[in-house]
Structure formats: structure tokens, C-alpha cells
Specification:
Length: 352
């Protein structure tokens, strides 16, 4: 159910945000209706939402027997329900009906951070025209940025360098050495790769989309060519800035023993090396989707949302693959130490 932006204007701390920021949050929020006796959430629940009560009354029942009322029309009703996770109490509807709004907690924090940072008189990136900050809203909503600490957001925007681009301009070529990470601020672009001996367009980019991170993470040549379709503006980070601000928090590494446990619990092991490498030696039960084909082929191999552990020989290609898969909605970790580390673990646990 859509959320009127006016509902957000009376809530704390949303009332202090710019109207365009509240409008964006209203588009991302969801509203649900509950009946008397239903639980909005239960003690011990793990979730990713900030929850506001828009109408009605809840009873917050703690495991120790304490009980506190939360009434939408009361002065305290403008505040969200306690965000502690796991949930510390069960929120039960005690009025005839209740309307509850949920907003992704991490996205909310990132938008509040951006809203505050962009008010600084030295901020160079706030767009004053209609839709001038849509690229920011979409960038921060990306799966790859979901776990980026809010402190890194400030550093990222401080280090961004705007670059004006012309129609048909080639920003990077397949095979080039990696240098920058890019975000499309204005305009559109095409992404092409040599597949089966000929260049083929494999994706289109618009405001808020990123590119260039694969080569920076894998320390390999560019694996695609990006050509502007419309003139516009790109935001870029140097290799040094990318590695300092974005690379560490975006990557989730697991040691071989943990990767083995995840596989036992149902995670899929994805070998992102070339098919010839996989055929020569691989982890039993793994599937092979080479890094250069990952975006094109992974959907046919695994549904979005799957738990994945990626590996290569050393970890460099795995880092790039993990970033790509996070953007595509997978829950992904990279195997620290690569194939060699896993084979050593297997050998150590194999009877002589």
C-alpha cells in the first residue's frame, strides 16, 4: 500500500528532512493493516525494518512481564518502535485496527546521513533542480551499498570527482588497466563485451548505476566497454579512494571452515574461474560461472536471494564476483585464501 509523504512529516526524525528525502522514503516504505490481537512483531524477531505506528494502539509485552502502551495519537506516537534487534518485546494490536509503516533501517540511516551532509555549505554534490538527487537515492538503495557504514558515506561523497561526458564518448574500454570507479549522475550508457568473437551490448546504465568496480576488486583488466548514449555527468573515485572507502566494508570474507559449514547449510559454492581451471581442479559440489560471464549467466544458475560462497585461486576474482552478486541481490561471501586454502583444509581433515 502506498504511503502518503504527509504521514512521514509528523514522525521523528523524518519531520526534519527535506521534502524530497521524505518523498523518496515514502516511495520505499510499506504500510500494513492489522486487526486486534495480531502481532506486529514478536520478542526475539530479527528484521531489517524501522517500524512506525500510524494509527491505533499497541501493547508492548516484554518477556519479564512488563507491558507498555504505544499509541499513535499520543505524543510518543511520533517515534518509531524500539529498533533493537533481536526485538526486545512483542508488539500486539489492542485497538480494533492498526496501521503500521516499515522502512528499511539501513536505507533510512543512509538517507538521513545524506540529507544532513548535503546541507553543509561546502557540499559540492547536492542537486538543486527537480530530480537532481535521484542518483544519490538510487545509489544508496543498491544492494552493494546495503552494509556500507554511514561513516563511509561521508568519505565517499567528499572524494567523489564529477566528470562531464559527451554523447558516444567511451569512458572505458575492455582490456584497459583499471583506474576509476564510476557512478552515473546524469545520462545513460551502454555496456558491451566481446562474446563469441563479437562485441555485444549486455547492459544499459542510468542514473545511480555504478561501473568499473570489477577490475578494481579483481586487479584484472577491464572486462567491458562503457559508452555514453547521452551526454551527462559521471562521479568517479580513484583506485586509491575506492580501496580505502568502499572495498573493505562491501566485502564479506569467510575462512575455509566457515565456508564448508555454509555449504552444509545449503549455500552454493560458485567457482568464478575460467572453465578450463574448474575442469582441472575444483571444490566438489561447486558450480562454475566465470567472472566475465557472471552477470549474464548467474540468473540461470541460481535464483536471486540465494546464499552463495564464491571462490577463485587467490581471492581477487572472488572479491569482484562478490560485489557483482551483492548488487544482483544475492547473499554472498568470498572464500579467503581461495581454492588453495580450501584444499589444504580438506587435506588436513582427510585420514591418511
Amino acid at each position: 500500500m502506498p504511503v502518503p509523504a504527509t504521514d512521514l512529516a509528523r514522525l521523528f526524525p523524518l519531520e526534519s528532512l527535506r521534502q524530497e528525502t521524505r518523498d523518496q522514503l515514502a516511495r520505499e516504505a510499506s504500510v500494513s493493516d492489522y486487526s486486534r490481537g495480531e502481532n506486529v512483531f514478536e520478542s526475539g524477531d530479527l528484521d531489517d525494518d524501522t517500524v512506525y505506528l500510524l494509527d491505533g494502539e499497541l501493547r508492548c509485552n516484554y518477556p519479564d512481564g512488563r507491558s507498555v502502551a504505544h499509541v499513535a495519537s499520543a505524543p510518543h506516537g511520533r517515534y518509531s518502535l524500539n529498533d533493537a534487534v533481536p526485538r526486545r518485546f512483542t508488539a500486539k494490536v489492542v485497538s480494533g485496527k492498526a496501521r503500521v509503516m516499515r522502512i528499511d533501517r539501513r536505507y533510512l540511516e543512509k538517507l538521513i546521513t545524506w540529507d544532513q551532509l548535503s546541507r553543509d555549505e561546502n557540499n559540492r554534490h547536492y542537486g538543486t533542480g527537480p530530480g537532481g538527487n535521484n542518483w544519490v537515492f538510487r545509489l544508496l538503495r543498491s544492494q552493494a551499498f546495503a552494509r556500507l557504514p554511514t561513516g563511509n558515506i561521508e568519505k565517499m561523497f567528499q572524494l567523489f570527482e564529477p566528470v562531464n561526458v559527451k554523447p558516444s564518448e567511451i569512458v572505458m574500454r575492455e582490456g584497459d588497466a583499471p583506474d576509476y570507479f564510476y557512478v552515473v549522475r546524469e545520462g545513460t550508457a551502454s555496456v558491451s563485451k566481446y562474446l563469441d568473437g563479437a562485441p555485444q551490448v549486455v547492459a544499459y546504465l542510468r542514473e545511480g548505476d555504478t561501473f568499473g568496480e570489477d577490475a578494481l576488486l579483481s586487479n584484472l583488466p577491464r572486462n567491458a566497454t562503457v559508452r555514453m548514449m547521452q551526454g551527462g555527468v559521471l562521479m568517479r573515485l580513484s583506485r586509491e579512494a575506492f580501496e580505502a572507502v568502499l572495498k573493505p566494508p562491501m566485502l564479506s570474507w569467510v575462512l575455509p571452515a566457515e565456508a564448508a559449514k555454509l555449504a552444509q547449510l545449503g549455500a552454493t559454492l560458485v567457482d568464478v574461474r575460467m572453465p578450463e581451471e574448474h575442469a582441472q581442479r575444483a571444490i566438489d559440489g561447486s558450480i562454475n560461472v566465470p567472472l566475465y560471464r557472471l552477470r549474464e549467466d548467474i540468473a540461470g544458475a541460481l535464483p536471486s536471494g540465494s546464499r552463495v560462497v564464491v571462490y577463485c585461486n587467490t581471492g581477487e576474482r572472488s572479491a569482484a564476483a562478490a560485489f557483482v552478486l551483492k548488487r544482483l541481490g544475492y547473499e554472498v561471501s568470498a572464500l579467503h585464501g581461495g581454492l588453495g586454502a580450501m584444499l589444504r583444509l580438506i587435506a588436513a581433515n582427510t585420514p591418511a
